Amino acid sequence: MKRGDDNRHETPAETKAKPELYFSRAFQSEIEEVLEERESIEIVERESKDDIYVAVGKKESSYDALRWAINFVVKPGCLVYLVHVFPPVNYIPSPVGRIPKSQVGPEYLKAYMNEESVRRRSLLQKYISLCSKSKVKVDIMLIESEIVEKAIVELIPVLNIKRLVMGSRRSSRRQRRHGKAELVRKNAPEYCEVTVVNAGKVVPENQETTPPFAIPLKENERSSSKARPEFSRKNDRNFFECTCFSGKFVQP
To answer: Can you give the residue ranges of the UspA domain (predicted)?
Structure first.
């Protein structure tokens, strides 16, 4: 979105095309939609060229990547964004098997979604604690998507991400070449520096390596920085606040 467009009126078509934006606190019981309140939220433009984005998940490699980023690339005063991609909930477990979400009662569904939220908070807590111990400011990005690498690649131009760190599993060199981190590095826009970390060391990029499949991207997403959409964030947000993009934003 270009500067100066915040106050313009949107057509219905434009509204549908926008990502659904959620604003939450990481220790609340659920993510609350505040689309109606977006106009009243003061947005402060911040210089984010030194901010670091680190993709985190269940694997120990994510913890290694965050620790490497804190030790080697995080500068004083910069902000570390923890990017966590989680799959959408389509089925609910029950004693008789998995049941489609559409067939579950609202109370049971709400209880299950709260349990999922608690599990995510528990997972992210160790990353938050590491940043806290290192006296590093941290924020959280939650993305609901079936395809981790595609979701992260599509997030890069939206947030103008210039530095992204991802962990790679302790596997063979051939397997690492075909992993999520390598796919993101191969498909990321040129202005975004993607660092892949394995066992605490940077994995060099093999220019001759071709990923097993290409993530479909729009042509303008790989063009120059002039084509990048602008995205601003509040710079005085609570330590445990996060922004969550729904699956409608990152489509599998």
So the answer is: 52-176
